[in-house]
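INFO  loader      accepted 1 record
INFO  loader      residues=416
INFO  predictor   begin
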Amino acid sequence: MTNRVVITGYGVTSPIGNTPEEFWTNLEAGNTGIDVIKKFDATETGITVAAEVKNFPFDKYFVHKDKKRMDTFSLYAIYAALEALDMAGIDTENDENLNHDRFGVIIGSGIAGLPVIQEQGKRLALKGPKRVAPLFVPLSLVNMATGNIAMRVKAKGVSRAEVTACAAGTNAIGSAFREIKNGYADVMLAGGTEAAICEFGVAGFANLTALTSETDPKRASIPFDKERSGFVMGEGSGILVLESLEHAKARGANILAEIVGYGSTNDAHHMTTPLPDGSGAAKAMQLALDEAGIAPSEVGYINAHGTSTQANEKGEALAIHTVFGDDENVLVSSTKALTGHALGAAGGIEAVATLEAIQHQYAPVNAGTTELDENTSIINVVLGQGKPHNIKYAISNSLGFGGHNAVIALKKWEDD
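INFO  predictor   done
INFO  writer      dumping tokens
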């Protein structure tokens, strides 16, 4: 016997908002969070813009010493997790019905504590090994977002980090879904987090020729557009509360949506470039649909990985077309036009966007894009403005360096 798995809360900190209301308002309106880089002087990198978190409400859950004991990617994750639990109505301190041994955390990140790695690397070079901070290692470890959340909320169950580059957040949600579905947990916090906008990170991606050098924030991240020229770095965190349906109903939870499928594959092709025919991503989408037990024609919306890079989007467009054909009911958009590419956090933030699309029955616009090319015009990209749309099922795609493909399938909540 397996369990149905539902979403009862979410939290988000992102370039377009740090609350559900702010996030949805900007998502619906197509307001981009991309702007001139403010975290450091990026002049020498040749890159002008990024999608930075703005006005992060640090004081809501943290005190000053937390900045010394945790890197920003952990702070983002804890904030989103606590916001998600609050929405779900779960009081981890006082709820006697919450079994902490069956309450787990799986958080994905691609690069984790890159700013502290940069900072301590400089310190090592300038001042010697004795001046490297004692907490350098635990500050920078990828698993510390999971660990810090678990310590904060006393989650003693399934606990690990997913480290699959830009697929990490979606892999984390898919893994948590399976833990509950197969009876190993009652409640899981799952999603992604990233805070890698620093000179080290921007320079690395820029020298890889992965980033756009476009200076206009509204034309920098234009997924599927014929003039796309590279991705824009983003940051933030998106985390869901997942529960077994039985557990959620027993406590009278407000159910937001259901997770019904997960697909995970590898291209086994190239370090950074996806399979040109998109077959690995297509397989992951099909696996998610198969687990959900639905036909492609039942899907109303796809939140595409859509990074605003030529190779990625040619492959992903082919993958989508392979699975969904010419079905005009399947609307596609990449919300990275608004949030930038948040790397390991992308899947978590985009899961929130996909959930919002289902709740509001609205397909967000693929902002900034004006003209598709011959490789991307084979799919139904939402152009101009978002569209009210019947969305019973939606999927969210995440594709990462190393050939990782991850897809989750969500369903509009129906008590049947």
